[in-house]
Amino acid sequence: MTWHVLGAGSLGSLWAARLARAGVPVRLLLRDRARLKAYEAAGGLTLVEQGQARLYPIAAELPSGTGPIERLLVACKAYDAEAAVQPLLPRLAPGAELILLQNGLGSQDQVALRVPHARCVLASSTEGAFRESDFQVVFAGHGFTWLGDPQRPGAPQWLDELEHAGIPHGWTPDILSRLWRKLALNCAINPLTVLHDCRNGGLAEHPAEVSVLCAELVELLQRCGQPAAAEDLHEEVLRVIQATAANYSSMYQDVANGRRTEISYLLGHACATAARHQLGLPHLERLHARLKAHLQQRGLPVT
Ligand code: NAD
Ligand code: KPL
Question: 48 partner at 20 to 30 Å CA-CA among 90, 161, 223, 271?
Fold first, then answer.
């Protein structure tokens, strides 16, 4: 069965190239005619691994094409996912499966509401890839992707294809817990690195701020039915700060490069969930307000 990959950016290209080289049929769905023309001129996707670049001439088409889509990997940013899936609705085959690669929470529900008859598999990935230029992606070379479906715990057959393609993954009956845990880590680290203009390791200079945010995130996770995601959160945040001390967080890199952030699906989602549960989390709310003001000053979207 063909994998249609929506979004030929960092993660979408990484998945598409590995599936294609394992002999799995893949087709890219590109935004518009201009992008399709640019892709055809490039001759395919280039994946750079351990300094070695290799071109993968994967077939590409527009969302307005006509063939049925049975398996769709949605690899856009969280804020683009719902709108990107919309034009594909008439092409989704009965029983179609969507794999949602978005970080944070909120976009998965937005997409699922649009496709009530399809299966939505959610993913939480720590793989790292970045775009060197259009259709050329560099793979950091490590990471893992958890997959799961909160509605149907049974693992799909196509996990074999991921295995075959060398995509490190695991199936979990509790993908929401994994997504909440990553969201909490990202909320405790990423906004502070932006506001303090520092690498992850720089947060070692701000232990009180990190600690109070972790305490509020734990309260939130417990209140919204995710106690497992709350366990030892502060300890893990400190571990990640230390282990990734030399790195800039993904949100820091987005802001530094003038790119829209996924704030609404991370801190914004945490604050909205707290409000829905009538839970006052003053430090998290203040962090959200400071981050929005910071983005606004730089002319970046605050959602
Ligand atoms: P990206 O910006 O590199 O790629 C997204 C792609 O989607 C772009 O090529 C964009 O043109 C395309 N797109 C947007 N709207 C579209 C539309 N309507 N039709 C077709 N294509 C469309 O983003 P990314 O870094 O690959 O991130 C994707 C998701 O994966 C994000 O939620 C991110 O947080 C998450 N993630 C990324 C990494 C990473 O290392 N890059 C790691 C873990 C998680
Ligand atoms: O995932 C991350 C990111 O930068 O987005 C880490 C390294 C965990 C920091 O929150």
Answer: 161
182 is an active site residue: yes
Confidence of residue 47 (pLDDT cuts 50, 70, 90): very high
Q: Which domains does the chain have, with CATH numbers?
A: 3-173 (3.40.50.720), 177-297 (1.10.1040.10)
Cα(244) to ligand 2 centroid in Å equals: 8
Report CA(65)–ligand 1 centroid distance (Å).
21
Nearest atom in ligand 1 to 137's CA: 3
Q: What is the pLDDT of residue 253?
A: 97
Q: What is the Cα–Cα distance from 131 to 129, expressed in whole angstroms?
A: 7
Least distant ligand from the CA of 124: 1
Phi and psi, residue 48, nearest 5° = -105, 120
Ligand 2: residues within 6 Å at CB? Answer: 185-186, 189-190, 200, 240, 244, 249-250
Question: pLDDT, tens digit, for every residue of 174-207?
Answer: 999 999 999 999 999 999 999 999 999 999 999 9
DSSP annotation string for 28-69: EE-SSHHHHHHHHHHTSEEEEETTEEEEE--EEE-TT--S-E
CB atoms within 10 A of CB 280: 10
Q: Is 107 in the pocket of ligand 1 (CB under 6 A)?
A: no
Mean pLDDT of all residues in 275-294: 98
Q: Note if the pTM is more than 0.95.
A: yes
Report the pLDDT value the prediction gives residue 141, as an integer from 0 to 100: 81
